[in-house]
Amino acid sequence: MGSFLIQRFFLFLLISQSVAPETIFLENKKPTAYEVLKDFNFPIGLLPKGVLDYDLDSSSGKFSAFLNGSCSFSLEGSYQLKYKNIIKGYISKGKLASLEGVSVKLLFMWVNIVEVSRRGDDLEFSVGIAGAFFPIDNFEECPQCGCGVNCNNQLVRKIKKNPFVSSY
């Protein structure tokens, strides 16, 4: 009887050892940065392809996203964007605030995008003293560093512009 229990015990250990790491892996799998954007009601195309990792403090909303290096691209040939290798800010439902690491070229100078807010089916991008609205469906696809959304000679998907730029 004793050897039967010992055999059962070792069989249990063998089975639990083979199942446990996979179970632990599945339980500890953290969502991607793109999934986190969706959780906060943002489209994935706010971040370029290739985010390596991120940190998120769920109590304060403070986040950092990490790219392999700095990243720049043009959208529709008119909007030039730059992402630093670390993007920081605070995220809440429908709002990215105190944003650092993302800039857009306006006329002849680069300005930091400091806030992005979701307003229904539009996103409002603020550079501090001015802002612009764009349809959210412009950001369904993640741009790629170097070529934006027009990579591998694909057809250019036009960014729907909103001619209205507001100043605060």
UniProtKB/TrEMBL annotation:
Top-level taxon: Eukaryota
Signal peptide, first to last residue: 1-21
The keyword Signal is annotated on this UniProt entry: yes
Keywords: Signal
Keyword flag Signal: yes
Name of the protein this chain belongs to: Uncharacterized protein LOC111297161
Organism: Durio zibethinus
Upper lineage: Eukaryota, Viridiplantae, Streptophyta, Embryophyta, Tracheophyta
